[in-house]
Design a protein that fits this description.
Mean pLDDT: 89
Order of helices and strands: HEHEEHHEEEEHHEEEEEH
CATH topology of the largest domain: BirA Bifunctional Protein, domain 2
Structural class: alpha+beta
Low-confidence stretches: 103-115
Strand order of the largest sheet: 1-2-3-7-6-5-4
Number of domains: 2
Number of strands: 12
Number of helices: 7
CATH superfamily of the largest domain: Bira Bifunctional Protein, Domain 2
Helix content: 25-40%
């Protein structure tokens, strides 16, 4: 059917540029901004060459998966950084809408229940299903001559396949039994994003975004280990704060708020404890 925006996204002024094949959609978005594009503009493809993840890590690509980047211009970069949480929520809601009756295991311990989310959010930027990574989200920015910032919100989703040999479990919609193609998923994603962006409201609604995010949070209340620039911080995942930092409670009862790091649950989090 080809890529298209949802009616509410079109009505809200979003535009769409689709590619049969592209380099990094985030890189294209930032280049568009340097050329004067202000967005909001979605750039999408099912064949991305040169994709990347956090901290410059390569993002393995399989044709038929979805790469979607939203370009917008912001004035407050610290506030705009919380849009990564909006992106995770939007993808979770889009998947819920497309697969309302799917029977899959959920939760870090594989348990399930009637009120538990099937698509969980792992701080800061992953979407999980059945304890495996389904999607990664990458925010990149570039300062513009007028002092504003171009923000590229990149979302890579394993639709038809997932890479093997990774240091963490990964999955795809096809492996989970979902018969959803990239075009249909993007349509639902553009719809969910538009609604949640209205809630976010230039940061004024971050408290509600935080509440919705925590309702999908993977590992909430469980032991975690966070790698912060080579230093391991251990404790229990308690919440995310008003700035969406990862808050853990340590063995002494104190709390630590972490702005950036790699989170590990389960046996990895418990390793090294006496």
């Amino acid at each position: 059917m080809g890529f298209r925006l949802s009616p509410i996204a079109e009505a809200a002024g979003y535009r769409l540029e689709a590619f049969e094949v592209s380099g990094s959609t985030n890189a294209i978005a930032l280049e568009r901004a340097r050329q004067g594009e202000t967005g909001p503009l979605w750039l999408v493809t099912t064949r991305q060459e040169g994709g990347r993840g956090r901290r410059g890590r390569p993002w393995a690509w399989v044709d038929g998966n979805l790469a979607a980047t939203l370009l917008r211009v912001e004035t407050d970069l610290r506030q705009a950084a919380t849009l990564g949480f909006v992106a995770g929520l939007a993808l979770g809601e889009a998947l819920d809408a497309l697969a309302p009756d799917a029977d899959i295991s959920i939760g870090m311990d594989g348990a399930s229940g009637p009120n538990a989310p099937r698509f969980e959010l792992k701080w800061p930027n992953d979407v999980l299903c059945s304890n495996a990574k389904l999607s990664g989200i990458l925010l990149e920015s570039s300062m513009l001559p007028d002092g504003r910032f171009a923000l590229a919100i990149g979302i890579g989703i394993n639709v038809v396949a997932h890479p093997a040999g990774l240091p963490y479990p990964a999955t795809s919609l096809a492996a989970l039994g979902f018969k959803i193609d990239a075009e249909t998923l993007f349509l639902a994603l553009s719809d969910a994003w538009t609604r949640l962006d209205r809630i976010w409201a230039e940061g004024r609604g971050i408290a509600e975004i935080r509440r919705l995010w925590l309702a999908r949070a993977a590992g909430l209340g469980s032991e975690v280990a966070v790698n912060v620039d080579g230093n391991i911080v251990r404790g229990v995942f308690e919440t995310i704060d008003e700035d969406c930092r990862f808050v853990i409670r340590d063995d002494k009862g104190g709390t630590v708020a972490i702005a950036a790091g790699d989170v590990h649950f389960g046996a990895v989090a418990s390793a090294g404890r006496n």
